[in-house]
Write a structure and sequence with these properties.
Nucleotidyltransferase, domain 5; 13% strand; 6 strands; 298 residues; alpha/beta
């Protein structure tokens, strides 16, 4: 798990000056006490507590995270954040700093570890499932042409999300590319990103789009990862749940439920990845809070 954590009592170097910490829970995405108790110790220490200098934070981080969850879940523009949240520039500033500092990556890793340990599994996943999902770009023309493309198979013009999840459906890594990028190339980015974070499953299930002797041999020789292709049964008619593959399909559905992820509204690829991570953090925080409460009641 990540270092440089801080208790919520010190998250603003004191009491919240603006009073946003005491605001009523108004929206479905506002953190509950149980959810905040899960996220509280996982956040990085503010600069004013690390000895590197910096002013105390004016707004409480619980409200900042609730605002980030609201933006991801409701798909609103930053300037249209409700007035009972901190100013949108402040909320976006936190997201930008946490994105650059890989704080969102740490939260995803730590929440996944909490849930896996509660389920009696090891912190790091030894097996996973991989898949890609093409997402249409918004009609406002925000997505630059340099990072956009056309997926002929899905008939989608926009970007493609490449996901690697564990066998519980919890996010391990995400990579965003133009929709024209082949799934195998996105898988290479995913596996390298997961390895850089210290989590590289040794066995991965995928669909037929990831077939290819050269790519499968590269994964085994260079990364020590076995790629197992799950094919559709011959003569299949209509929908049928396929072993292992349904897990990542369910994760895609979880992420697409957040309206900011239903279409691509982000100018930067890194911002799109951050929104996917926030969508995963919403789901995992709620799941971890329920597990914590259930454990406390036993």
């Amino acid at each position: 798990m990540s270092l440089n954590r801080v208790l919520a009592a010190d998250a603003t170097c004191g009491e919240c000056p603006c009073g946003c910490f005491t605001r009523e829970r108004t929206y479905s995405t506002d953190l509950t006490d149980a959810e905040w108790a899960v996220l509280e110790p996982l956040l990085p220490a503010p600069a004013c507590l690390t000895g590197t200098g910096g002013r105390p934070e004016k707004h409480h981080r619980r409200t900042i995270i609730s605002a980030l969850f609201y933006a991801a879940d409701n798909g609103c523009k930053w300037r249209n954040l409700p007035a009972d949240f901190p100013p949108w520039r402040t909320v976006y500033g936190f997201l930008r700093r946490w994105r650059a500092g890989r704080v969102l990556h740490d939260l995803v890793d730590d929440l996944r570890a909490i849930i896996r340990c509660a389920a009696g599994r090891s912190e790091k996943a030894s097996a996973g499932i991989i898949d890609a999902q093409s997402v249409r770009e918004s009609a406002e023309g925000i997505v630059p042409a340099a990072t956009s493309g056309y997926d002929q198979h899905k008939n989608v013009n926009g970007r493609k999300r490449h996901l690697l999840v564990d066998t519980l459906g919890l996010l391990i890594a995400v990579a965003v590319s133009a929709a024209s990028v082949p799934d195998r190339d996105g898988a290479v980015m995913l596996l390298l990103a997961a390895g850089a974070r210290g989590t590289r499953p040794r066995h991965i299930w995928a669909d037929h789009a990831y077939s290819g002797a050269a790519w499968i041999a590269w994964a085994l020789d260079q990364l020590g990862t076995v790629i197992d292709i799950v094919e559709q049964p011959k003569g299949q008619k209509g929908f049928q749940v396929l072993p292992r593959r349904w897990v990542v399909e369910r994760t895609n559905a979880w992420i697409t439920r957040r309206r900011r992820c239903a279409r691509d509204y982000e100018r930067l690829v890194s911002q799109h990845e951050a929104m996917v991570q926030i969508a995963a953090i919403i789901q995992m925080t709620r799941r971890a809070a329920k597990l914590t409460q259930a454990t406390a009641e036993v």
